[in-house]
Amino acid sequence: MNTQPSSFAPAFAEPFTMAQVDAYDWSSLAGELDGFGCAILPKLLAPEECDAISRLYPEERHFRSHIIMARHGFGRGEYRYFNYPLPGLLGGLRTALYPHLADIANRWNERMGVEERYPDEHAAFLKRCHEAGQRRPTPLLLQYVPGDFNCLHQDLYGELAFPIQVAILLSEPGRDFTGGEFVLTEQRPRMQSRVDVVPLRQGDAVAFAVHNRPVRGTKGSYRVNLRHGVSRVRSGMRHTVGIIFHDAR
Predict the structure, then answer these.
(1) With contact defined as beta carbons under 8 Å apart, do 44 and 38 qualify?
(2) Pfam families from the entry (predicted)?
(3) I want to staple 54 with a disulfide (CB 3.0 to 4.6 A). Which of 129, 209, 239, 249 is the partner?
């Protein structure tokens, strides 16, 4: 696998990415993820970085596949999966975010009685994915226009699935588009689903549970099931980049 940065190189080199990600209050973010299944990382990307990634969408050389959601019953809209090598900005973010989220994921698995533990570095986790036959990159760029939406779903691409992922809003609500809110639902046993509409601005990221997370009950922790989606875009165009940490078959 070639993980070297491509020729796309906005003014955001990987070492600076690491420093910016490390600067967040990860204790507070972990508390949000533990309590609600999601946490916002404000201003993870600058506006010019968001615009640079959005402009990649029509350039097919950066992508391995193009998905039209309506053809698969996923909703309306479209997205493209990036090829390896990832753009340097996205590869750097994937590398920088993973260790912080792996700490949380390992605690979650311990509480849920799941044996899987995640290594400290993302390269080591990708090696596990590739040894299991999961070699296709999963970061993706999504595009929505009026009437588009993304049905509630979970991004699971093989036996190995990292339990937390990150989505970064690349467009500015109210200026570039209206509607199109990020939505997270949580189903607890014998209860109605809980819905969380997550407010994001351009450059904000949301880290959220892909599938299950632990919730503390009277007899210890139990698992709850989560799904995520995007509400109907009412005007304009909305771009989002999704950073998924496991690779696909």
Answers:
(1) no
(2) Oxygenase-NA
(3) 239
The total of structural domains in the chain comes to 1
Provide the terminal-to-terminal Cα distance of the chain, rounded to the nearest Å.
14
pLDDT digit string (tens) for 169-212? 999 999 999 999 999 999 877 778 889 999 999 999 999 999 99
Which residue range(s) make up the domain with 57? 14-243
Q: Please choose, from the candidates 44, 88, 87, the residue with its C-alpha nearest in 3D space to the C-alpha of residue 203.
A: 44
| Distance from C-alpha of 184 to C-alpha of 179, rounded to nearest angstrom | 15
Q: What CA dihedral angle connects 92, 82, 246 and 217, to 10 degrees?
A: 90
Cβ-based burial of 14 (10 A; exposed 0-12, middle 13-18, buried ≥19): middle
Q: What CATH code is carried by the domain that includes residue 226?
A: 2.60.120.620
Q: Is 217 exposed, middle or buried (0-12, 13-18, 19+ CB in 10 A)?
A: exposed
Give pTM, 2 decimals: 0.91
